[in-house]
Amino acid sequence: MATTTTANGVAAETPRRAFVRAWWIWAALAILALLPFIGGKTGLISNYGFLQLSLMIVYAIAVLGLILLTGFNGQISLGHGAFFAVGAYTAAVLIDQANWPYWATLPVAAIMCFIVGYVFGLPALRLDGHYLALATFALAVAVPQFLKYRHFEWFTNGVQGINIFKPDPPFGLPVSSDQWMYLIVLATAAVMFWLAHNLLDSRTGRAMMAIRDHSMAASTMGINVAHYKTVVFGISALYTGVAGALHAIIFEFVAPDSFRFELSIAILVGAVVGGIASLPGAVIGGVFVQVIEKYADALTKKISAAVHLPLDLEPWTIYGIALILLMYIMPMGIAGGAAQLWRRIRGS
Amino acid sequence: MTQTTRRLLLTGVGMLALALAAAPASAQKKYDEGATDTEIKIGNTNPYSGNASAYGTIGKTIDAYFKMVNEQGGINGRKVNFISYDDGYAPPKTVEMVRKLVEEDKVLFVFQTLGTPPNTAIHKYMNAKKVPHLFVATGASKWGNPKEFPWTMGFQPDYVTEAVIYAKHILANVKDPKIGVLMQNDDYGKDYFNGFKQGLGKDADKLIVQLSTYEVTDPTVDSQMIQLKNSGANVFFNITTPKFAAQAIRKAAEIGWKPAHYLNNVSASIGTVMKPAGFENGQGSITAYYIKDPTDPQFANDKDMAEWKAFMGKYYPTGNLQDSSNAYGYAVSSLLHVVLKQCGDNLTRENVMKQAASIKGVQLPMVLDGIKANTSATDFYPLQSVRLARFKGEKWELFGEIISNEAASQ
Fold it and tell me: Which of B100, B125, B186 comes nearest A159 by C-beta?
């Protein structure tokens, strides 16, 4: 129900409002793009800080992939970590074994993941709802094991993973390699979001949403449901795969343990927390995945030390509490909740 | 009036600034990031959670050791700030945490990062950044390669050395050996295995009748143990980390397999391996030792042991006095203590590395008497000797002489 209204909101937007919103997006993008030149020079943000920012954007792209699938097409996936892994390994193996330049690996990772997603989608999409969720979950559990498989070790390097090196900035630009990769990631994300926005705004996008809302009605209207579902699954995998490839390049390291099924859950949680049927929700979700994952542990320790709790809090306690609160207060995710709040303030 | 005051103030401030700027130069103090007149910042990662969390106690011991050092006035007047993060023995997490240590916390060097896979993941990074990567907590033979990796140094006797010693012992003591090997499938496991084959000589492939492997993320090694038993092996070389070692010993007893058992030193701990495995199941096992086991009665009146126990009681009271990992942490911390003392006021990364490579015949506390730490510009393996021990009752009993293997220093 809730998702429908948001989606309708996007579709019913007048051109003028779209332009106003676009203006804000351009401003935000410009500020983000200038960060390396401001933050880097003044030492306000360390290279490690830029890595963190890049990771947030990468996860935002991954979450966007899932949002396209779940939020706009109504298919549930618990296995997007698998596509993330395929993208990451495609990039890492090409750089490590074939000495490819990093930028050339992105389209290959994209195509690779589209194919994997499409092929996996063919049989899996005969499954509905919960069964599809389980099938994708199995994929997420299986992929790390495949990467460790003894006879693939000559190119996956087994459990040890692959070390690659971050490229230096070209043309003698006055930025560090972390800052340069941040700019690359930002630009890629901008393109990916723009493409997603256009896709949703097209006939295809409307067909996707029609299938989500009522697949029988959609098929009566002449939409080829199976075809659309499979292609959307492929596109969704493509998005997440590109995120995986970017992750490998900026992180300079891939190993099977980076892509345990917890990653799939993290992407799903990011999508739900951000707002399952909203593009800005993907950005919020990406930030959430990175921040909560990395700092819930530290925060739990600090809090239990500060209030002298008599019991040892498990590292994930804060994470759990945050999730429960969010689901109660903003059942439509942060983006949905914010939009609702905004409407209430304006009194409409 | 105000004019003069301001001018006076300005001159005063200017002179003060000059004096401050001149001071370090006159005292011949040299610093890199992470070192100041009052502090030395050291980075570390340890598995405080996850499958290998039994080792996490090493990080806690090191932390306690430097608390003690700081209480006693620090090193050359500087306090040690030991920053340790949990990496759960997961290489990706280690990469991220070590980047945080180097780039955000700006530590002078990284010390005792634990585990072969985690250290492998950061090996190139540390050397590209030229940040010392000292006394890593793994015995893989690759940490002593100053030509290619001049910023990385090992600590304990390396796995190849140890495995060669077991192989020779098997050949000399077991009649008609048929060997089954259980191996963790990573560089650590393969290092042992290669050393073992080297020690067995040209018949190695005939002597080893079964090689079973597991991944560090596996829940159990039960099926591997059944496989090994069914192979008909009468010797079992156990290349596993503590949790799996305990599982393997217990399972072997459960299924009634009684081979001659050789356990790698990595899992020789009584508290975390032999006890959970069941003492009765581990009788007669053989391992190699270089650390004084706190449970061994022959050290009951040892001076080191008394000092270590006093240290544990005061600075790490929750630590297990049976766990030799805590003795290990104490020994490796005191080696670092020696190196930092040698550095004096020249705390550059280059000098830290230089001093680490100039250790001459140091007898570390809690290391077996006679096993001395030695390094040079071409020898990046501080400890290189062991003694064999056999499990009897509830403890390891040392037997035989100190054995060194020169093959390791090539």
Answer: B186
Is 0.85 exceeded by the ipTM? no
Q: What Cα–Cα distance (Å) separates residue B95 from each residue in A48, A51, B1, B24?
A: 11, 12, 61, 35
Among chain A, residues having any CB pair with chain B shorter than 8 Å are: 46-49, 51, 144, 148, 150, 158-161, 163, 165, 251-255, 257-258, 260, 294, 297, 315
Measured CA to CA, the distance from residue A277 to residue B295 in angstroms comes to 61
Tokens of B352: 């830290």
Contacts of B2 (CB under 8 A, 6+ apart): none
Classify domain A2-346 by CATH number. Answer: 1.10.3470
pTM of the model: 0.77
The CA R_g of chain A, rounded to the nearest whole Å, is: 20
Q: What domains appear along chain B, each with residue ranges and CATH number?
A: 39-157+299-379 (3.40.50.2300), 159-289+389-409 (3.40.50.2300)
Q: How confident is the model at residue A19 (pLDDT cuts 50, 70, 90)?
A: low
Residues 6+ apart with CB under 8 A from A31: none
Q: Note the pLDDT tens digit of each residue in B17-43.
A: 555 544 444 457 889 989 999 999 999
Instruction: Compute the distance between CA of residue A236 and CA of residue A143 in angstroms, rounded to an integer.
Output: 17
Rounded CA separation A255/A96 (Å): 13
Per-residue tokens: A252: 């300079």
